Amino acid sequence: MTVLEVLQSTTAYFQKRGIENPRLNAEHLLAHSLGRKRLDVYLEFERDLAEPELAPIRELVRRRGQHEPLQHLLGTVEFCGNVFLCDKRALVPRPETEELVELLLQSTVDRKPSTILDVGTGSGVIALTLAQKFPGAKILATDLSDEALLLARENAARLQIDEVEFRNADLLENVDGKFDLIVANLPYISRHDRDQLAAEVLRDPEVAVFAGEKGDEMIRQLIETSPAYLNNGGLLALEIGLGQEPALIELLRQKNYGDIEAKNDYSGRTRFLLARYG
């Protein structure tokens, strides 16, 4: 089979299996298996592939057809201009979280944070990106999962970033000091909504996806406990679930946060909350 024929047959197979963006997925997997850049595949459409080249492609296609995340198969994910290691040890970073980082950069133009806490860091993408954006800042990144923290440290080594301290902690337990910025992309899905999730999301660690019965329990706990860890005028930045903003905004008001802002993601859904304390 030629490269083009493999690409076409893989795309058709993914369409039947309900894979989103089937052609793009096929291109990524084919390029990865052949050790090429995705766009370079277009230069080799007429090349015949031998069986030793086809076998690993078939295995990747089979696994993707079973809704194993593309990022797990590639072993990496792009986030804010960097390439991070990505596997089943932590949540696959989503484009919405890149938007959260963009909002943070916009919100701190006049007040650059010198101390930052990333709660629930997962693979470390937020903390490590902020370390690049705020050179000299002291950054602590926490997670309850030792596996996720190991992945985060591997990403730090890959990017040659040593300014971030990684620590095992359940939210703010085992954390000391005060911060100019606390950012968190915590689990915000109710366990009752499991059936509504894409099959790929269910391949992420459950501890990184599901909160409690309502879905906002962990976020509420962080809102309630963060004041003791924020410097005067410190910023709390949260990624939240759909429909959670009214109750969470009310809680922020009750806990004396000010400058509360709800921000939409690029799809127009309210996805982020920003608030200052003191």
Taking the alpha carbons of the first and last residues, their distance comes to 65 Å
| Strand/helix succession | HHHHEEHEHEHEEHHEHEE
Q: What is the CATH C level class of the largest domain, in words?
A: Alpha Beta
CATH architecture of the largest domain: 3-Layer(aba) Sandwich
CATH homology group of the largest domain? Vaccinia Virus protein VP39
**Strand order of the biggest β-sheet:** 5-4-3-6-7-9-8
In the CATH hierarchy, the third-tier topology of the largest domain is known as: Rossmann fold
Description:
The protein is α/β, with parallel strands linked by helices. The chain has 2 domains: 3-66, Helicase, Ruva Protein, domain 3 (Orthogonal Bundle); 80-277, Vaccinia Virus protein VP39 (Rossmann fold, 3-Layer(aba) Sandwich). 38% of the residues lie in helices and 20% in strands. Strands 5-4-3-6-7-9-8 form a 7-stranded mixed beta sheet, sandwiched between helices. Helix 1 (3-16) packs across helix 2 (22-34), helix 2 packs antiparallel against helix 3 (51-65) and helix 5 (95-107) runs parallel beside helix 6 (125-133). The longest helix has 15 residues, at 51-65. It is elongated and about 65 Å long.
Features:
9 strands, 10 helices, 2 domains, alpha/beta, 278 residues, Helicase, Ruva Protein, domain 3, seven-stranded mixed beta sheet, Rossmann fold
